[in-house]
């Protein structure tokens, strides 16, 4: 079975307001800046007719743009809820994988973007290429970007050993996961920095294995 990737942009109902508030996080302010974000919603129909609805709700970021009193340190605490509903065919397994992409002097909004070190990625044309661990502390230079999943859930395997997974599973046709004050730590970036949420959902039915990815709106880390 093939694994086609389906990508869609987040809904932008509050685009102007959220962008304006995100700009308040730039500079070297000493206090934290709370940034409400609009989240988003998409509905996709898979090859076997299964309909997948993905929502990102209650999204926000609390940003300290000058951790350590230097312009190359930033810290943010991000929160949100991902909700998934599938209809049309029995679900064998669904996996919800929320995460974030962080860029230093890189435009991580829609379309093809590039950085000064030859880095390029079409954020909304591909599934996330994850390179960091949950609770990532990232070190990025100009033109660099990294993505990471925020979940690190410990489970016991059939042999009694503990394993770590980066997803929340569901099988009933409806699933969700909430994260609260997950940390994004960034060092080494002397210019502007941005972050952006994504929710990747893997769907497996009797006749299809496909991905659906919802991208949130970019926001400034300062």
Number of helices: 1
Number of strands: 18
Calculate the mean pLDDT score and round it. Answer: 77
How would a textbook summarize the main sheet? 8 strands, mixed
Task: Provide a concise account of the structure shown.
The protein has 222 residues and is mainly beta. It has one helix at residues 15-23, and strands at 5-8, 33-36, 40-45, 51-64, 73-87, 93-104, 112-114, 120-122, 130-132, 137-139, 144-149, 153-156, 162-165, 168-170, 174-187, 193-204, 209-215, 219-220.
Could you outline the blueprint of secondary structure elements for this entry?
Blueprint: E1 5-8, H1 15-23, E2 33-36, E3 40-45, E4 51-64, E5 73-87, E6 93-104, E7 112-114, E8 120-122, E9 130-132, E10 137-139, E11 144-149, E12 153-156, E13 162-165, E14 168-170, E15 174-187, E16 193-204, E17 209-215, E18 219-220
Parallel strand pairs: 1-17, 9-11, 10-15
Antiparallel strand pairs: 2-4, 3-4, 4-5, 5-15, 6-11, 6-14, 6-16, 7-8, 12-13, 16-17, 16-18
